[in-house]
Amino acid sequence: MKDVARKKLGKKSRLNATPSWLPLLSKRVRGDVATYGKWIDEYSRDASIFRITPRAVVFPRDVKDVRALVAFVRENKTKYPNLSLTARAAGTDMTGGPLSDSIVVGSSKYLNKFKLDGDLLTVEPGAYYRDVEPALDEAGLMFPSYPASKSLCAWGGIINNNSGGEKSLRYGKTAQYVREMKMVLDDGREYVFAPLDKAGLEMKLSQDDREGELYRGVLSLIEKHKKAIEKARPNVTKNSAGYALWDVWDGKTFDMTKILVGAQGTLGFMTSANVQLVKKPLHEKLAVIFLDNLAPLPKIVNALLPLGCDALEVFDDNTMKLAIRFFPQIARKIPGENMFTLAWKFIPEALIGIQMLGLPKLIILAAIAEESESEAENKLMRVDKALAKMRVHRRMIHNPKDAEKYWVMRRESFSLLRHNVSGKRTAPFVDDFVVAPKYLPEALPRIYAILKSYGIDVTLAGHAGSGNFHIIPLMDLGKKSERDKIPLISKEVYDVVLEYGGSTTGEHNDGLVRGAYLKQMFGSEIYNCFCELEHLFDPKDIFNPGKKVNVDFARALSKIDPKAKR
Hints:
FAD, oxidoreductase, 17% strand, Alpha-Beta Plaits, disordered N terminus, 5-stranded antiparallel β-sheet, FAD-binding oxidoreductase, alpha+beta, flavoprotein, 566 residues
């Protein structure tokens, strides 16, 4: 084992005193272990508002190391009750999910392999999406629920958050594409979970071992609360809140992956997954709609939904202003472009801006992708016809290369904010709510009014077609008065979201920032089902405790990072 704890990695991180159990841990794994230095500093943060310093960061070399880590925590839990394991892949989580004051287990260093076999991808949690995507492109395949952060994120986060993205409107979310998961559970053994027919389920139920115990426990939980669980299914097309008990058993197929995907590593440690891919459509078109106010957004979304768009994405003028201000960064993200060639391509938009007497308040991207050119063009024509009736400024883009600038602005919006805003910082805490599109005319203005009443500047981006919006407040979290607004705003915003039968999170998950609202969203019976499920899989709280269920929100708020920039 390579012990990096004693390298001279910076004076600041030496404040993290070496825990008494470290020598015991160091003897159990062959991977790298750090207790101070750059890894401790980096792994104290993700893309959320929190900062929590781990006692150790471990990079297991293989599954054997993961099993050894679980066995170590299980054996020492009585003596060291706060020992736990929190999985981390790329650390782009916006909820504090991969943060812990115990042991953070990083997968990106060694557990990062992938294999493509036909249209099935086998992937380890630490593999970056950007490293896998070229192989998919070459094979003419795609993973359709890739997130906007695909240039930064890894597969562990994609799967454990049940991520979605711009194409989820047509193709759905990650849980629909996971065919098999390998997990190390609380007994230190690796198990394989995949859909089972009735005969397969009966075989599992008859087993006199830990696996049989889990299948019996989950089935019993579902049958005991069957009506309440089915009623609890969120009335939206996207949801990452809670555990998806309503998707496990339909009477024909029993699929444990439905509760493991999106569990944020609270039920076990994922070591690999088999993911189904789809054929990548050959012909892509884009309709770009420019609005001078928010009012027409719901009407446009509801008019375009029946036309079968791949995506209905949106971003606001604040994002556009950032893109203009940091134009060189945008240009570098587009292959084959420089500042001058890209500026030339914005001439049509400049002319529209002149007609509108300024920057549009909102830009909607209606994406189309089909197997044939004629199919794609016909669908684009129908979109244009629908928009003509509403007399909105628009542009039909036939060449995907001309459309790329918009996708870069949309995908990079959070990154631009996070790294380029001075004084204030991005504060994602009401960043992922979902309201059915038919309720947007009522819900969105109310949510904006709440934020305005607290004097909060925000940017808006997201997946308008599914009513999934990423509202990112810009705040000076160095001020206690600003930090104190977070629980107040969260409560008021989620009151509105849940009034319309929505979800607190469509794809970013619960973590520290939203887990406390699960009981309000689902009610006591279902929340208790979630707690029972988590306890069934992890009775000793080995895996990422205090995330999703049993969240200590007051403690989480005390861990807000006051720094303006990262």
